[in-house]
Fold:
Amino acid sequence: MKVLLIAEYRDGKLLGSTAELIQFANALGAESAMVLVGSESALPAYNGTLYLADIQQAGEFNPGVHKQLILDVVAKEQPQLVVLPHSSTGWDLAPRLAVALNAAQVSEVVEVKDGQLVVPACNSKLRRTVNPATELSVITLQAGAFTPPNGEATGTPKVVKLEASPNGDIQFLGYEAAESTGVDLSKAEVIVSAGRGIGKPENLAMIEALAKALKGEYGASRPVVDAEWAEHSRQVGTTGQTVSPKLYVACGISGAIQHLAGMKKSDFVIAINTDKDAPIGEVADVLAVADLKQLVPVLTEKLSIL
Ligand SMILES: Cc1cc2nc3c(=O)[nH]c(=O)nc-3n(C[C@H](O)[C@H](O)[C@H](O)COP(=O)(O)OP(=O)(O)OC[C@H]3O[C@@H](n4cnc5c(N)ncnc54)[C@H](O)[C@@H]3O)c2cc1C
Structure:
């Protein structure tokens, strides 16, 4: 099988998702080539052909121009899969490419099992295996699902330069960073996070109290933020903050891939969950199978008298 990896570049830097694209190709045992709209000054550590278009000429993101560059490489390489990160750029380009190529489009791939693509279903409660019916498919990879093993990546790509054709329809004006308000969890050394398992907003107080006893901050999973029990700056995950504290305590959090992507670089993870089979157990150093409403106040009290 051959896959075409579409790397991303932003603000003069190659994005970390490039390593996840390479890891995906490895997990599939596939031959790969890569497309990058970027610069020769920041090339990925990659053993393969890299089709490189100059960012000054092609623009940081222009859907028409970028789509055409990828279509030209697809014609040359004849891959079975075109693979993009599940990012705002990937969401935009993947359907455009799929329509142009008359290909199936599979979003948010989180795993490769026996050579098949696995995607979340029912708000990530279930997983299903997908077998595209077309010979060529365009897919996006969920952030954090194909993290490469630790260690410095090596390899030098064989660079093939691409010429971008101008496209007058859309002009790229730039990125505007959202105004940051609230707490910056990325600097916290201890984070105690509340998940849907807290049951009701009043129970957030016990999570805050434990965070305080540990001299840390409290965080939350997305359902807690969506229910407006906690502000968005507290959200950990792909659509929240990425954190790497020394200690992460996940209270009533199941461990959906989108949450794990935001916290799995934590040094030590304690999970408190009534379900011994909750997926958070796979990344936790300690899984306490307990009702958080009973265990959290006891822990807080013990810590407070130390
Ligand atoms: C595009 C997209 C982006 C997303 N981004 C994010 C993101 O950034 N961050 C994020 O968190 N999610 C995100 N999600 C949502 C994600 O898929 C999950 O739905 C979410 O993480 C689940 O949150 P949870 O673990 O709190 O709730 P649930 O999955 O409902 O888990 C609740 C857990 O609490 C346990 N529990 C229940 N009662 C108790 C109790 N009394 N004591 C102890 N344990 C108990 C249960 O056993 C269960 O494991 C995103 C989803 C999509 C589609």
